[in-house]
């Protein structure tokens, strides 16, 4: 999820735990992808349907009328990318507070507004789940008490692929369980109807033999 990658890397930059060149590029790229895609999803893709890098996304953001500090963000890329790719002539050139401020300012734009989650969640997984529900609630009718009332979505559970607690079943099975189709919002694993039915039947078979 782009918003989570943006928030996580801004947090890493603020704590100064690692060299800044990697987190700055990742945060800037994912932040720009999130805010531009909110306006025009096709604008973040090249002709091969790959997402554009940060350097190409900056002018796209300006074209779409987004209020960003393009010059400062571009300068940040000029500082960090040579370091990332081993081309730096002067490794003492570092990002300054103005670069981080320009990066944080992206969070004011539609499509992000996620930095307030950093201090509220102990893990990135928890933050990703919160962001998922926050985005879903944005599309819920005002008369609906919660997104769960609208979609009847069970709480997230452990993913069969990445083992994070970020798999969201899309409903309940015939026995009231959660062996249904669903999607992991962390790794993208998708459980289809055939897999869900096989899991359900296997579980029912085990329960039958247990009772016998």
Primary descriptors:
212 residues, mainly alpha, three-stranded antiparallel β-sheet, 8 helices, 3 strands, 50% helix, elongated
Task: Give a written overview of the molecule.
There is one protein chain. The longest helix is centred in the N-terminal third of the chain and has 19 residues, at 21-39. The model is unreliable at 139-145 (pLDDT under 50). This protein has eight helices and three strands. By secondary structure, it is mainly alpha-helical. Helix 2 packs across helix 4.
Blueprint (SSEs and pairs):
Elements: H1 2-15, H2 21-39, H3 54-63, H4 70-84, H5 97-105, H6 124-137, H7 147-151, E1 167-169, E2 182-184, E3 190-191, H8 193-211
Antiparallel strand pairs: 1-2, 2-3
Helix pairs in contact: 1-2, 2-3, 2-4, 3-4, 4-5
Shape descriptor: elongated
Helical residues, percent: 40-55%
Pattern of helices and strands: HHHHHHHEEEH
Number of E strands: 3
Q: Uncertain segments of ≥5 residues (pLDDT<50)?
A: 139-145
The number of helices is: 8
Side-by-side strand order of the widest sheet:
1-2-3
Q: What is the alpha-carbon Rg in Å?
A: 21 Å
Category by helix and strand content: mainly alpha
Biggest sheet architecture? 3 strands, antiparallel
Beta percentage is under 5%
Rounded mean pLDDT is 78
What is the distance, rounded to the nearest whole angstrom, between the alpha carbons of the first and last residues?
46 Å
Question: What's this, in brief?
Answer:
This protein is mainly alpha-helical. It has helices spanning 2-15, 21-39, 54-63, 70-84, 97-105, 124-137, 147-151, 193-211; strands spanning 167-169, 182-184, 190-191. A 3-stranded antiparallel β-sheet has the order 1-2-3.
């Amino acid at each position: 999820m782009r918003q989570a990658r943006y928030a996580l890397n801004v947090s890493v930059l603020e704590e100064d735990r690692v060299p800044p060149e990697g987190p700055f590029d990742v945060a800037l790229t994912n932040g720009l992808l999130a805010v531009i895609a909110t306006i025009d999803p096709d604008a973040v893709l090249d002709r091969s349907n790959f997402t554009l890098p940060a350097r190409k996304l900056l002018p796209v953001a300006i074209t779409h009328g987004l209020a960003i500090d393009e010059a400062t963000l571009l300068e940040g890329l000029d500082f960090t990318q040579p370091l990332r790719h081993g081309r730096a002539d002067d490794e003492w050139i570092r990002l300054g507070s103005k670069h981080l401020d320009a990066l944080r300012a992206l969070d004011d734009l539609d499509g992000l507004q996620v930095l307030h989650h950093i201090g509220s969640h102990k893990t990135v997984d928890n933050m990703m789940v919160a962001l998922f529900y926050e985005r879903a609630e944005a599309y819920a009718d005002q008369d609906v008490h919660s997104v769960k009332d609208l979609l009847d979505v069970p709480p997230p559970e452990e993913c069969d692929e990445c083992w994070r607690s970020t798999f969201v079943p899309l409903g309940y099975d015939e026995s009231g369980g959660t062996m249904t189709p669903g999607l992991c919002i962390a790794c993208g694993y998708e459980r289809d109807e055939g897999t869900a039915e096989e899991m359900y039947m296997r579980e029912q078979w085990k329960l039958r033999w247990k009772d016998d």
